[in-house]
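Figure 2 data, in text form.
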Amino acid sequence: MGLLGFLADQSPKHAGLLAIGLAMGVALYHAAFGFTGAYRKAIVDKDITGITAQAVMLAAAVLLFAPILAQGRAFGHGVTASLAPVSVSMALGAFLFGIGMQVGSGCASGTLFTAGGGNRRMTLVLFFFCAGAFWGSLDLAWWQTLPSMGSVNLAKILGWEVALPLQLGILGLILLGLRLAGGRNKGTLGWQDGFSWRALLRGPWPLLLSAGLLALLNWATLLVAGHAWSITWAFSLWAAKGAVLLGWDATTSGFWSGAFQQGALGRSILWDNTSVMNIGIMLGAFTAASLAGKFGRRVPLPPLSIVAAAAGGLMMGYGARLSYGCNIGAFFSGVASASLHGWVWIACAIPGNVAGIRLRRLFRLDGGQFGKRTT
């Protein structure tokens, strides 16, 4: 609360973003709302419960974003869609990110809320995620020389009256296709034992509750920050700031020589929108884990699991930088913004997840057995 009060005095906008991040952290933690486990269960067990919740979240976000982005302004300031080029770099980066998700056992949002909840292994993943994102930023100029068709805004090309139902229709067809392929909702989307105030305070929460809240909170981010929810830019920034402290000269990098990047390096991370929200997510998860009596539960960390955490974090960080975002900034916010790159990102990340699931055996994750479930 001290940090929230400080930001409220200095910058109401950043105080608002911290509050949004806190709410996201609670929603993510109490429902264990992740992408990695959902994809693994869908691929291995044909359990599409998590995918269904994601589709609901995306549909809600598309509906919430459309009128704001169509107007282009909110509360007297401009708002921008989450657009990025559809390119070879983006496709390869998303594929690499997908592998890293399964090897690291988390995604961008999942890494934040589990690390905030006291998971030591995911704290290690977060460290290498930041390192990989910084590494990717140093190589990005070369990757950008590969073929690209530029950013494709479906709403601008087709108009929102076509882009909106088109995207909702795609989500419906994906769910229909998964069901025709044998997928079923084997888990619970609503309250398992009925609503109770204790469950609301201490969890677990239904997936659909968190899905709706995350869509609403992403919309709130768009209204307050002027851009949608993103995560991995902050990871690049944090690692770059650490490199500067160790003597690295940022002007030697084309990426970090830009005016925006130089400004971010010169300011406290408390004035960076994405950093403030990431901090909020971790604090929210810490609060939720503490209320649930689960913070900092110690679990064994076998050497191979540590190696997998480092490798997964590096792959996700590097892949996120090449693909202009992660499961949140590129996929969730990209699709909500009617950006083609959001759809291409997930189309490339899913095969990466398939490869990553098979690589889990090398690190003896899931007990060394392909497809065995883990938390």
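Caption note: The chain is about 70% helix and 5% strand.
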